[in-house]
Amino acid sequence: MNCNKQPNNPPASKRRKSNDTIHASNHIGESTRTKPAPGSTETPTAAIDLDQPKKQTVAQLTTLPLELVAQIMSWIRPTKVWPLRGLSKAFNNLISSTSFASLNLDRILPSDAGSSVYYKLGKVFDGPESYQSEYVRKYLIDCCTIRIYQEFPHPIPKIWLRELKNLVHWKMSQCGLVGTIPHEIGNLNNLETLEFFDNKLVGEIPSTIGNLGRLTSLVLSEKRLEGYLPSELGNLVLLTNLEITCKNVMGPIPVEIGNLTKLEVLKLSFKKNRLVPNHLPRELGKLTSLVLLDINCCKLDGTIPLEFGELVHLRHIDLSRNNLNGPVPAEFTQLAFDFCGFYGNPKLSFPFPVPADWFVNQA
Fold first, then answer.
1. CATH 3.80.10.10 matches 143-359
2. pLDDT tens digits along 176-222
3. Which end of the chain is more exposed for a tag (fewer CB within 10 A), N or C?
């Protein structure tokens, strides 16, 4: 992003007493001095190139008043100024300070940078922690929605979990998010939507997600997540949508999910489930608001509970590619399914004529 603003002239009290005037370009490194033509009244000027830092310029830069250096460098894009921390300890302390981060962001970012929650957002989180905290404080502190679909190859910023108390909707899809889901995620008490889809998250689903009492939609579709489904999911009694499709997550399906009586959509899929036996809990029969039930590829065994016949609002059911056996509840024939899939369960039996549009007995 290019900044169209021009630097303010430093106050008279901070101007150099010599006849030299410092002109800051977008760079720091090589210094050149321009002499005026004979007879000219112009003052000599020094141009400081900040693009390729060189040792011979360090001494010159460090002799400037630190306040002046800060004013000059505050007009440089953060990704260009961060490497200058290596010039000296003083530069490192300056650039890493909260006050400089605040000034630099004010200069470079538009006043509405937080409205899109993205000014090369990932770049901000490549920098010092002071930039991360100042970015959040300036642009995100009142943010209620984060939706990121661009590249963000970083862990979930801990500062978001500490500071974004007003966050309501959080979606990150195919943006390269890495690391684990921190336990501190349970601190976002106002969160209603949490969706992580096709990133590079690893580790287990933290039990503290069960603290998000206002959550209405939880979607975790991450290939590298593992471990067990936390029973604390049963605390999320306002959920209407629960989708966890993570091939390395293991059962059993927590019986506490039966507490989520507002659920309209339940999708679970654990292709590499190594925990057997692994049954369908009869408690899921309490989810009488369910419209869609999709529990495929979970290596389930046992029977389909008779209580499932009481899910009178069900329009889509997919229990395919498991190891289920026994009779399918006859009550299913009374439901107006848009989709009904039992294929991949060769041991299931049907004590009634199978409707032609059902998908059954496909190995």
1. yes
2. 999 999 999 999 999 999 999 999 999 999 999 999 999 999 999 99
3. C
